[in-house]
Amino acid sequence: MSSAAWFTALVLATGVERLAELVVSTRNARWSFARGGVESGRGHFGPMVALHTGLLLACLAEVALADRPFLPALGWPVLALALLSQVLRWWCIASLGRRWNTRVIVVPGMPPVVRGPYRWLKHPNYVVVVLEGVALPLVHTCWVTALAFTVLNAVLLLGFRLPVENRALAALPAPQRAAR
Fold first, then answer.
1. Of 107, 96, 113, 95, nearest to 35 (Cα)?
2. Mean pLDDT value of segment 109-126
3. What is the mean pLDDT of the chain?
4. Cβ atoms within 10 A of the Cβ of 121, count?
5. How far apart are the first and last CA of the chain?
6. H-state helical runs in 35-71
7. What is the secondary structure of 135-147 as a DSSP string?
8. What totals of helices (H) and strands (E) does the chain contain, helices first?
9. DSSP 3-state assignment of 13?
10. Cα(170)–Cα(56) distance, integer angstroms
11. Distance between CA atoms of residues 135 and 143, nearest Å
12. Nearest CA among 169, 163, 175 for reference residue 44
């Protein structure tokens, strides 16, 4: 099997993983809303989904259209990082439990999570997104995709998602913020 075929399988497996995330997210959103959860920043969710879907499609397109090669000296180390990003992503999901979501939903009265990677970072899942957005495309030298995703993700993350999430978390009652 060619390296492009293996890369296609990797990208498709990543897509399946994203679908699994959506299943977990939908279940967790129902749980949160049943407990009075309040959603913030719904307007940026569509562009975020489009960007993440675009990452996967662009990886496939760049390999096919630009005939990107697999360079072992680059490909193997970044494959390890791409796989590590999945492990870290699911550590974030497990640490947040039913409160993990692809949307920004805060359940009033619940303290912030301070276990797992949240002991050290306020938003570890976004570190994972940045890592994967660079590593996955570079497995097969899709540097245009890696660069474009990184820039667009920075705009979306820094300009919209993080401010919305930080405001939502700051709206929790003071005793909960102190528990952080």
1. 107
2. 92
3. 93
4. 12
5. 50
6. 45-66
7. HHHHTTT-HHHHH
8. 7, 2
9. helix
10. 33
11. 10
12. 163
β-bridge partners, 38: 106
State how far the Cα of 33 lies from the Cα of 40, in Å rounded to an integer. Answer: 12
Q: d(Cα 97, Cα 114) in Å, to the nearest integer?
A: 12
Picking from 134, 158, 131, 129, the residue whose alpha carbon sits closest to that of residue 147 is 134
- Report yes or no: 58 and 148 within 8 Å, Cβ to Cβ: yes
Checking if the pLDDT of 177 tops 60, the result is no
CATH architecture assignment, domain 3-171? Up-down Bundle (1.20)
**Rounded mean pLDDT, 145-164:** 96
Residue 143 CA to residue 58 CA, distance in Å, equals 11
- Domain parsing of the chain, residue ranges: 3-171
Ramachandran class of 39: left when φ > 0, alpha when ψ lies in -120 to 50, beta otherwise? beta
pLDDT exceeds 60 at position 176: no
3-state secondary structure of 18: helix
Tell me the backbone φ, ψ of residue 104, rounded to 5 degrees.
Answer: -95, 100
HSE-CB at 119 with a 13 A cutoff on CA atoms is 5
Tell me the torsion sign for CA atoms 70, 74, 78, 79.
positive
Strand partners, 180: none
Phi-psi region of 31 (alpha: psi -120 to 50; beta: other; left: phi over 0): alpha
